[in-house]
Amino acid sequence: MSPRSSFLVHALLLACTLPVAAQPAPRVSREQVGTRTSENIPALPPALVEQLNRYQNTRGATFAGWSGDCMLISTRFAETAQAHRVCQPLGMREQLTFYPEPLAAIEVAPAKSKLDGFVFGKDVGGNEFWQLHWFDLASRNTTLLTDGKARNQGPLFSHDGKRFAWSSTARNGKDTDIWVTEFATKQPRVLVAEGGQWNAMDFSPDGKRLLVMKYVSAAESYPGVVDVDSGKLTLFPVDGGKASFNGFRFAPDGRAVYFISDEPVKGKAQEFHTLRHHDPATGRFEVLTSATPWDVADLAIADDGKHLAYTTNEDGIYRLHVLSLPSHTPVKLPELPVGVVVNVGFSPDGKRLAVTMNSATSPSDVYVIDLPGAKLTRWTQSEVGGLDPSKFVAPTLVHYPTFDEVDGKARLIPAFYYRPANAPAGAKLPVVINIHGGPEGQSLPTFNPTAQFLANELGVAMLLPNVRGSEGYGKTYLGLDNADKREDSVKDIGALLDWIAQQPELDASRVGVYGGSYGGYMVLASLMHYSDRIKAGVDIVGISHFGTFLKNTESYRRDLRRAEYGDERDPAMAKVFDAISPLNHADRIRAKLFVAQGKNDPRVPYTEAEQIVKAVRGNGQPVWYLLFDDEGHGFRKKTNVDYFTAATMLFWQQNLIGEDDTAATK
């Protein structure tokens, strides 16, 4: 008997035993093609697939490191992102790796070493159990560096390339320890095995000491230094007892450190992450960005010790800054496009700075700044599928009031608003609310081909809110959704629905919600509370019950997630989870629902998707369900992404836009 026939027989038998008051489960139409299983998803119209094609063939390039006068970048030319080498501005992109799985971290051997190559991470089917490999550029041979089983991440060379550190769960499968090896011998040993999640941050210039960090949550980290030979760990004192830290680097003298933190300063609490300099030998301490009321996001120091670069996240817009060392004098920079600046890296001679830049109307590309001349040169120019970039929609930043107050005034929630440029006069536009994951993530005005397609081809507006709990807006805002305050962030979506209803160009009767991971939970929770005001929702790898999620997530993540969501072993917290989890209130989800999932997801197990699908269908509601056997926490293979995107657009056409509008797009 075929799986489909077996399912129908089971459904008929079940229907015969249902009580009279129960709703019969909707008939499920299942299709399996390769690694994809689709349930209730109609055949994709060829016209829609063709219309989407150019948007799905946009691509970006990100800086991965300097290799002499050349640079390594990550970009996709086939199914997945791979390592490429570029040796001059807008030069040929030479592909170096050709794996069916996308590469994770890429760490290039330092210029001072005698090594010519790079380390990269790669998993299988999105399971995130990355293995680290050495790629030798001279021979083009690849060598496995890790055990082939554990989860390995954060590769880091010493400045002379003789030592190599990384984080791994190899010791017990639960804790993320720091391992180290002499790269010539490649004999690994555990360096830090204190329990919890540890990361290697920076080697001292002589390679004898290693700055390390224990991560507990977005609001709590513990920095320290370890003697590499003896393994002796010394934790640094944390002002206030608890704080968040990001970048941590040795100063060029190997004595002082630069770091990013929200520790109190002179006993005064700090809302934002600031760039700091501390010399323990002299006791000198300085906050270098005290005048900037926003988070410092990242930092990098040139090998020649003459410059430090850092970025600030200012209401979702990134700014690049460079300081001369040791004076901390600002360096004049060329004007950069407005957007997001990441992956900052100095050239081996310290005279150039590579950055990855992304904006709402341009995908990621690599630019290089000549520091002495303050000149900006573009090194890569990624394709936009043959589309006209001048027609891309740039979002506006809006702030809408929510349910509670700050200093006697309504709290304002920031959101990026993509509005179709050529909307007919007087037309009411459908809206998709796109909710980020994390929950400590942040929606940024980055290139989003889906938002461009919705705006330019389907006439749909998109809103990306940064509800409470989002990073980038200070320590207080970050903690507003913790533990039993979880549903306050859902109320921020309710307030956004109110705001939509007040906008003359938006149609409050045609609102959809979309989100992945924690954003998927937010989709389900929004449908649970506001199904009378939301027509449809797309949940990607979302949490449907916090208790079952914490029970089934990979063991190396469990304590980290408990720090954010609460501990399911605590009866009081378990009661909260039962009250707020969509699985327990599936009967209140009356809007149309599309659930998409990767089978190998180590963060949010696929069982979270299957149980909500079953529960909603059990109440007589049809659900579209999509499962990829070769994906994990999100989709990274182009064929899979293309199918999911086309299915999502069809879902919006049928369940949000309306039949008349759908016909107009075919």
UniProtKB/TrEMBL annotation:
Organism: Lysobacter stagni
Peptidase S9 prolyl oligopeptidase catalytic domain ranges (all copies): 446-656
Name the UniProt record assigns to this protein: Prolyl oligopeptidase family serine peptidase
UniProt lineage: Bacteria, Pseudomonadati, Pseudomonadota, Gammaproteobacteria, Lysobacterales
SUPFAM superfamilies: alpha/beta-Hydrolases, DPP6 N-terminal domain-like
A matching Pfam family: PD40
Keywords: Hydrolase, Protease, Serine protease, Signal
Alphabetized Gene3D superfamilies for the sequence: alpha/beta hydrolase (3.40.50.1820), TolB, C-terminal domain (2.120.10.30)
Listed PANTHER family: DIPEPTIDYL PEPTIDASE FAMILY MEMBER 6, SERINE PEPTIDASE S9 FAMILY MEMBER
PROSITE patterns, A to Z: PROKAR_LIPOPROTEIN (PS51257)
Residues making up the signal peptide according to the UniProt record: 1-22
